[in-house]
Structure formats: structure tokens, C-alpha cells
Amino acid sequence: DKDTAIAVEHIVLAAAAKGLGTCWIGSFNEQKVRELVGAPEHLQVVALLALGYPAEEPPPRPRKPLTEIAFIEKYGQPFAPPADPRKDRCKS
Amino acid sequence: DKDTAIAVEHIVLAAAAKGLGTCWIGSFNEQKVRELVGAPEHLQVVALLALGYPAEEPPPRPRKPLTEIAFIEKYGQPFAPPADPRKDRCKS
Ligand SMILES: Cc1cc2nc3c(=O)[nH]c(=O)nc-3n(C[C@H](O)[C@H](O)[C@H](O)COP(=O)(O)O)c2cc1C
Ligand SMILES: Cc1cc2nc3c(=O)[nH]c(=O)nc-3n(C[C@H](O)[C@H](O)[C@H](O)COP(=O)(O)O)c2cc1C
Question: Is the ipTM value over 0.95, yes or no?
């Protein structure tokens, strides 16, 4: 699953670089898809990817702040990037 | 797993864009990692990612040809990109 997700996401980003939009689809009837494309039973269908020229350019959706999703040293200890990275590097 | 793999791979690519090398690590003692970072039991540790400035720049590893891994319409029918895409588009 992870290997495939990595490969699919590279397709997503390569498509985006060419102005194409995609939509990850993880919820589908695996047996039906297998029949449709004639894939053998021993293969697992991990994902479908819709691909096309986007009709709209929606603004980026809100994201959680980094301090809420990134921790430093210990789980729960919010990671805050140094305000000025150069300052941080010259502590000696 | 897929959501996390996507997020981690974006970190991999962002790191690469800054000249940093990474190594996906999927094989580890989950309980030990959880203890080390103090993560609660209800969270699954999906991956570790080693990050650093690369000491070497190995040449790209050999890749399977596209015709071996990409099929068109049906599983097993090798996808060969058209030699001249413009020709292909002007069939009318
Ligand atoms: C692993 C994965 C599976 C998804 N499966 C579906 C799906 O079955 N149907 C669907 O409409 N969208 C699916 N999506 C798309 C999401 O609903 C969402 O539109 C997309 O991740 C973009 O949202 P974001 O801008 O908040 O990242 C999936 C996304 C991911 C990452
Ligand atoms: C999901 C995943 C898990 C991995 N787990 C490990 C690991 O546990 N230990 C390790 O040394 N490398 C691990 N790797 C790294 C691979 O062994 C390999 O070095 C990397 O994918 C680059 O190889 P490539 O150039 O052929 O793509 C993992 C890679 C992926 C994608």
C-alpha cells in the first residue's frame, strides 16, 4: 500500500506540474475494477486516480498549523520553526 | 497508511528540493519507537524517515521500461506513448 501510494502521488504531482488535476479514489468496488481492466485475481487494486484539466482553481483549503501536527523530541511538544534560522545556527 | 505515505513522500520531495537526502524506513520495532518519542498507544507508527545531507550522489538505479509497467485499456496490453503526440491528436 505504501509503495503504491508513493508511486500514485508522484503521478499526482507530475500531473499538477503539467496543469492537470487529479482525484485520489480509495473507495471502489475492487472486483468490478478488476473485471473492467482484466486484472488477475492475485493483484490488489490499491487506488484509482481521476485525471483531467481542472474546470476551476479552488483556493487552497485551510491547513492545521504546523505547531499542531509537528512535534519535536517528544510527542505533544509542539515544533515551532525558529523565527530566524540563521540565528539558531550561530549559537557557539 | 496511504494518507501517511503521501504526506511522508511530500517531505521526501521537499527535502530533495533542498538538497537533502532521505531514506524511508518501514521496518522497525513500533513499540520501541513509540516509547522513544512518547507516542500514545492508540497511534500507529507508519514510517520513519532518515534525513541528512547526502555523502554521495549515486547514479539513478535502473528502472523497468514503461511498456512493462503501464498498460492501456486492459491489463497486459503494453502502453507505448505515441512517438509524436501532436500527430496523435490530429486524427480528424
Ligand atoms: C488515499 C485517498 C483516498 C481517497 N479516496 C477518495 C474517494 O474514494 N472518493 C473521492 O471522491 N475522493 C477521494 N479522495 C480525495 C479526497 O476526498 C480529497 O478531495 C483530496 O485528498 C483533496 O483534499 P485536500 O485538498 O484537503 O488535500 C481520496 C484521497 C486520498 C488521499
Ligand atoms: C515504504 C518503504 C519502506 C522502506 N523501508 C526501509 C527500511 O525499513 N529499511 C531501509 O534500509 N530502507 C527502506 N526503504 C528504502 C528502500 O530500501 C530503497 O532504498 C529506497 O526506496 C530507494 O530505492 P530506489 O532508488 O530503487 O527507489 C523503504 C522504502 C519504502 C518506499
Answer: no
